[in-house]
Structures are given as C-alpha cells and as structure tokens.
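Q: What residues go here?
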C-alpha cells in the first residue's frame, strides 16, 4: 500500500473559534475515505486544509511528495451568457495528462462534449466536474459533496462510478458526503466529524455507532439492510484511520 496523505493531531482555529481539533487520519492508494458530519462540522474546512487553501493549522499534514490532486468542488457557477461547451471547459484545465475525449469516456459522458455547460443537468454537471478532475491523472481525488443537486438514483450511480474509477485508477479518494447510507456501498472507511472525530471505521461500524446515531438520528440503521458494503479492509489490522484523543 502506498500512503498518499497523513494528518496527525491537526487542529484549526479561525477568529478564536475552534473549527477542527485532534484530527488524525491516513489515506492510502486505492482507498475511499468519506467524511460525514452535520452542518458546520468542519468538513469543508478539513478539505481546504488538505488542498492548502486554509492556513494556520496546528499538527502536521503530510502528503506524498509530488502528489497530484484532482478536486471536484460542491458546485461551479458558470455565467449563463458565457458561450462554453463541455469540451472547451475541459480543455481549460491545467496539467492535462489525458485527452478530453478520454476523460469524458471515463465518466460515460462522451455524448456531452458539444453541449453548452449551462444546459447540463445536475448529474451531468457533476460527471463533467469529475471528468475534469481526472484529466491530470490524479493520485488523490478530493470530492466535496460530489452528488449535491443530484437525485437519489443519480447519486447512487455517481458514487458507484467513483468506486469504479478508484479501482481502475488506483487513486485515493477523500470525499465529503451528507448521506452515509448512499455512500456505504462505495466507501472503504468513514470518519464522522463534528469538529473532532466522533467515530470512524468501516461504514457499517460508523452507522451503528452511538455517536453517529446521536448526531444523525437512527434512520440510518434501517438503511443498512438495503445498502450493504463488501470489501476486504480490516480497520483493526490496517489501523489506517485513527482517532487521537
Ligand atoms: N473563513 C471562515 N471564517 C470564519 N468562520 C469560518 C470560516 N470558514 C469556516 N468557518 C466556520 O467553521 C465552521 C465549519 O465550517 P465548514 O464549512 O467547514 O463546515 P461543513 O461541515 O463543511 O458544513 P456544511 O455541511 O454546512 O457545508 C462553521 O461554523 C463556519 O462558520
């Protein structure tokens, strides 16, 4: 296993408010780590720290030297009068290692190449943002609520695609999601965040954890019978997501 990212005892204060404290985690190649947590829990702040957009943290953030990171934002605002096709939008990205056509094919969106960006549906837009992030053959994909604005069926498809791409490209994925039950089948590890790490581990473990139930209520438990996750990871043996403190 190749370690891509390691956070050790990371904390963040903004204007004397504690935003994050005691965050420790490790992400390896081929692994999907999903961060769930209520509004204001610090999920986006954590992602920004990893992207180098938030400064002034304590603790250490280690990245594999030269790590190529592909980022998919929550959403992208494009001016309604800007004449911009999908292919043109994709060609504007820096550090391209594959062609626009190859990237679109990876997300099953070849037919959208000539479509105006403003004409895309929510699900199509998220696929295009994912395709754009793939253009530099990322070793780490960071996805901030990639399925926002997508209907439930589309969300399930999108998370399955992210899982498929992770297996195919053997990249690591750090993802924020509001819906644990929707990502359960597509994630290896989950961190439940509320400033600090409330609980962590395999998705079923987190969904049954009292801290998770306290934050989100119990409906998640009922979903377990529908969304079952199968994989070979063993948190106890790998110890790759740790809660310090
Ligand atoms: N630049 C900033 N200045 C002041 N406070 C900030 C700043 N950025 C984030 N915060 C605060 O940090 C807390 C965590 O915000 P963050 O956006 O990381 O949460 P989140 O878990 O992503 O929330 P949501 O699910 O609502 O998107 C919030 O209370 C927010 O107001």
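A:
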């Amino acid at each position: 296993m190749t370690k891509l990212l390691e956070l050790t005892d990371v904390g963040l204060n903004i204007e004397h408010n504690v935003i994050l404290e005691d965050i420790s985690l490790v992400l390896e190649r081929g692994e999907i780590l999903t961060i769930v947590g209520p509004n204001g829990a610090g999920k986006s702040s954590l992602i920004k720290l990893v992207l180098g957009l938030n400064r002034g943290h304590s603790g250490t953030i280690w990245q594999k030297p030269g790590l190529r990171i592909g980022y998919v934002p929550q959403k992208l605002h494009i001016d309604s009068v800007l004449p911009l096709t999908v292919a043109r939008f994709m060609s504007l990205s820096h550090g391209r290692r594959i062609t626009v056509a190859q990237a679109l094919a990876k997300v099953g969106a070849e037919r959208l190449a000539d479509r105006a960006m403003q004409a895309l549906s929510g699900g199509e837009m998220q696929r295009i943002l994912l395709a754009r992030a793939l253009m530099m053959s990322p070793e780490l994909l960071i996805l901030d609520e990639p399925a926002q604005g997508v209907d439930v069926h589309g969300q399930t498809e999108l998370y399955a695609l992210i899982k498929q791409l992770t297996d195919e490209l053997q990249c690591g994925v750090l993802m924020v999601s509001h819906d644990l039950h929707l990502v359960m089948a597509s994630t290896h590890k989950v961190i439940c965040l509320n400033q600090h790490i409330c609980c962590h581990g395999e998705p079923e473990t987190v969904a049954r954890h009292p801290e998770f139930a306290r934050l989100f209520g119990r409906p998640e438990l009922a979903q377990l019978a529908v969304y079952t996750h199968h994989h070979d990871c063993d948190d106890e043996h790998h110890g790759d997501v740790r809660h310090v403190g």
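A: Context that may help when evaluating the design: The pocket of adenosine-5'-triphosphate is lined by residues 14-15, 19, 37, 39-45 (CB under 6 Å). DSSP finds ten helices and nine strands in the chain.
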